Amino acid sequence: MPVADPSALAFLQNRRSRPAKTLGLPVPDAEALRPLLTAAARTPDHGKLEPWRFVVIDRAAMARLAGVVETRGAALGLGAEDIAKGRGQFDQGNLAVAVIEVQKPSPKIPPLEQTYSAGAVCLALLNAALAAGWGANWLSGWPAHDRGFMEEGLALAPHERIAGIIHIGTETTAPPERPRPDIGGITTWL
Question: What is the reported pTM?
Answer without folding.
Answer: 0.95
